[in-house]
Give the backbone structure.
Amino acid sequence: MALCCLLAFWTGGDAMRVDKLFRRSRLYRDKWDDVHHSNGDTYGERTVKRAIDNTSEFYEPSTREGTAVQDDSDFADEFTAASSGLSAETRGDGYR
């Protein structure tokens, strides 16, 4: 959920981009696509919806002329590189 909230912030609350980026993370599991709700929502869909609903502010990039916007793959690679260096103690999640 925490990663999805971060992704919701950085993607401006775009559910499809949050899902796409989350699937590239080491946190992704097969259950992401399992239907877990009576309305047919998958575990992943509900998690992304909750993350977006719980995010009160969203990143708004500046629109300076000549500034290129990175695509999702660049963002995912940078995010993964930055977060992979964190120790379990730093993250506080108990995972190793």
Remarks:
- Residues 72-84 form the longest helix (13 residues).
- The chain has a mean pLDDT of 83.
- The chain has five helices and no strands.
- Residues 2 and 51 are 8 Å apart (CA to CA).
